[in-house]
Specification:
Low-confidence stretches: 1-19, 84-105, 109-113
Number of helices: 8
Structural class: alpha+beta
Number of strands: 10
Radius of gyration: 27 Å
Helix content: 25-40%
Largest sheet: 5 strands, mixed
Shape: elongated
Mean pLDDT: 76
Length: 286
Amino acid sequence: MAEDGPDSLRAIPDDALRAIPDDALRAMAENRGCKLVRSRRRKPGGDYGRYGLKDAQTGREVLGFGEGGLTATGEEVEHFLRGGLAATWKQSVAATPAAAKAKPARRRAEEPVEAEAPPPRSRQPEAVAEAVAEPVREPEPEPLVREAKPGDSGAIAALVTALGFASAAAEITRRLAALRKAGEPPLVVEVGAIVGVLTWHVTPALHRPRPVGRVTMMIVEERARGRGLGTALLDAAEARLRAAGCGLVEVTSNIELGGAHAFYRRRGYERTSYRFAKELGASGGG
């Protein structure tokens, strides 16, 4: 069974992924008096997956802003916040107000001081607020959890492959059809594009009065974590398992994925047993 949970996705094929998740970077930024800015692009190209930092009080751009958009990777932001460039930033911030408050040179005692006439009204700037107004950004689409469809195979294949199980879109199409025929269609969550997938199964059990439900795989793209999308997938799966008569839900997760374990514990899951696995050879072998 595939290992699941919010830490399951180890690598999306893009150099924008980071060593730590967005919520950790955001917390580090706040502790440094900064605000983390993340690219709002959802497809590769431009500043997809890039970041920037602003001063939390003044809004001044501190790191990762260029003419084409955001430029910093997650590693660069982490290095900056851990002190790699903090001294330079503090010096520049401290120097700016000093220059702005520089006192004019003293006049000689014999020089007369003349009052400066205000500029003509026609030369005074007008509607300054309109000139510097920020561009209006389109609101991000609302998350949608739904059953996976054949047309989703490409996106699902990319997620499963990044999890460590190389799968072509054609393979996912065949498996998806089999699961839908069995009445257990996988669930996907999309925010403009598919960013997560979950599979589930109902297991009749001789030693239990009611069937056991299982979440057999859950993946959420790293860039989309920390926004409640994994919880939305899990809630939808639990609702289906409850409707199927299950009295218990089980989840398996790779022992190395500590972040995934914490995710499930926060949602009421407890570790109840060990899982043992053995690879079986092809049937009919000599």
